[in-house]
């Protein structure tokens, strides 16, 4: 706890100073103690999750260097000439930018684009307890970077917890196979990065992101098969890792997100300004399909009792497109409307949209409410 508090205080004292200065203080904090890895891990979290570093310069550093070096090329180099050029450029920029620019501002901004010269402009300090919870969680998340197979058992829980979990599955674009039902629980099987992309950890990071979401479920257990490389023999070894709801890890994820993408949010905001009797609802029931669960983005409800589901397909990754259209075909919901971006290369993804037994709307950049209303009228 004391180490976490010290690290937080160090970042607070470094606000308005350079990242290079901060890094020097962090090295001093590490010292020669054997717990340097913990201190380094805490600093990594504070730097990447709670800090904002910015380039502070009168102009873009590339442009600033070009302007100053162009002036310097006109005279013989000397300390006096350098100072003169700084004063000249400062006067020019003060007039151009309509604010006072001093030579010191030019010196500071000249190489402000280097990582060590970025300024810590703001720091949102967590509590020491929250930082330690985040650290413990990140240690567990790192285990899943080399997972080849992950199985999550969600026991009988509140239906809202299932819905939140499946929304996070959708958000992280994980390829899953889901069995079960809300009354009995679900079993989620996730293909890991080792089975798909050999040594790539990019997909493993997406799986690791799911762990804080699982913590929002009351009763669950998880088992992962890992492709672990022996650090001495360099040979791959298969190991297993288990986690349950009694792990005492704490999630930093919010209990839910209003929207999964900017596309959905933009559509909802436009719908709110549209004059229509159809009401747009965000909370949608789970649609069971073989091997999975589909959670449409919106529900459209008319006062006369008619109800339609709307799913917006704007993500380009081929496996996501194949999965989404497969779900639509398996759902067999006559009241399901698919809104698909024309920019998606469906043929390259191996998808035939004409084989999907559902209503389809095509859009370019943004989905317009009038296109959806036209589809609703056509189904009357």
Task: Write up this protein.
The strands form 4 sheets. A 5-stranded antiparallel sheet has the order 4-5-3-6-7. Strands 8-11-12-13-14 form a 5-stranded mixed sheet, sandwiched between helices. The protein has a two-stranded antiparallel sheet with strand order 1-2. It is built from 13 helices and 14 strands. α3 crosses α7. It is of the alpha+beta class. The mean pLDDT is 84.
- Give the helix proportion (percent range): 40-55%
How do the strands of the widest beta sheet line up side by side?
4-5-3-6-7
Q: N-to-C terminal Cα separation, in Å?
A: 63 Å
Q: What overall form do the CA principal axes indicate?
A: globular
Strand content: 15-25%
Number of strands: 14
Instruction: Look at the helices and sheets and give the structural class.
Output: alpha+beta
Instruction: Indicate the radius of gyration in whole angstroms.
Output: 27 Å
The profile of the biggest β sheet is: 5 strands, antiparallel
Poorly predicted runs are none
